[in-house]
Automatic annotation (TrEMBL):
This protein's record includes keyword Transport: no
Descriptive protein name: NADH:ubiquinone oxidoreductase 24 kD subunit
Substrates-to-products reaction catalysed: a quinone + NADH + 5 H(+)(in) = a quinol + NAD(+) + 4 H(+)(out)
Molecular function in Gene Ontology: 2 iron, 2 sulfur cluster binding; metal ion binding
Gene3D superfamilies named among the record's database cross-references: NADH-quinone oxidoreductase subunit E
Keyword vocabulary terms for this entry: 2Fe-2S, Iron, Iron-sulfur, Metal-binding, Ubiquinone
SUPFAM superfamilies with a match to the protein in the record: Thioredoxin-like (SSF52833)
Length: 110
């Protein structure tokens, strides 16, 4: 588990991001994208702050972060490899490419 409190200026920068997007229609996704652009992931400590600002529950914000695969709850590794898992990619042998790469990389994160 990460210690989000070590992030410099988390509270002040998060307040700026929320203020920039809060009056938009459907502000949650733009806020989450901006937060991730700022820190490389959505810090756990940002979730209750965002929820309070948008009058949402923490569960609703966490649900959006965990539902969309583009959002991270921890910093990404140095290299990120994304493989297509759609049926059309599998039909062209994409699943085999993924199995080979996982063994080489030594780590698998679904």
């Amino acid at each position: 588990m990460l210690d989000d409190t070590a992030l410099p200026d988390l509270a002040s920068r998060l307040a700026e991001i929320i203020a920039t997007h809060r009056d938009r229609e459907g502000p949650l996704l733009p806020i989450l994208h901006a937060v991730q652009a700022e820190w490389g992931y959505v810090p756990r400590s940002a979730i209750p702050v965002i929820a309070r600002a948008l009058n949402l529950s923490r569960a609703e914000v966490h649900g959006v972060v965990s539902f969309y695969h583009d959002f991270r709850s921890e910093p990404a590794g140095r290299h990120i490899v994304r493989l297509c898992a759609a049926e059309s990619c599998q039909a062209q042998g994409g699943a085999g490419a993924g199995r080979g790469g996982v063994g080489e990389a030594g780590d698998r994160h679904a």
